[in-house]
Protein: Methyltransferase domain-containing protein
Amino acid sequence: MPTVSLDCVHATQLDAHLEHLKATLAPGAFLMLGLTTIASTATHYQARLASLPFLPRKATLSHPGPRSHPKPFQRSTVPLRMSVTEIIDKLKSGDTPVGVEVVQSVSREYAEFMYGYADGLEQDADVRALFVQDWGMEAWVEERLCTVWEAALLEVGLLEAWTIVVRKPE
Structure:
């Protein structure tokens, strides 16, 4: 089943991106979407703290080119602006509505994944060396800090990670 993250889709392109995904999905086919949202219980100040991992990072602003370590994805502000309910409503409406089969919180698993990624950046000498070679020490520190920050926000419940499985009607 194809999987798409909405965390890297620019907020101004979200509607068009969702419509494109729905239109290109074959009848009867499934698609898994991943997204992160601010917890509905977060205060204004907590939401500000939660925005840090979604700000532009040095490594994502660097010039493109052949690299031995994959370029980190530029995060968008969609997680700061949309609730999971709003995304579901967009999926079920529009020119090509799809059925929502599963909505599942995966916050704990995503936090564990993020901590594992950050540990790899720090503990694995080869991974660390390649990242620093490709993107620089400042970008390495920034990537690790933002990754651990996001994992901690998921762990304490200020961010929520979701998986949504949709199916296009036949």
Notes: The chain is about 50% helix and 15% strand. Residues 137-156 form the longest helix (20 residues).
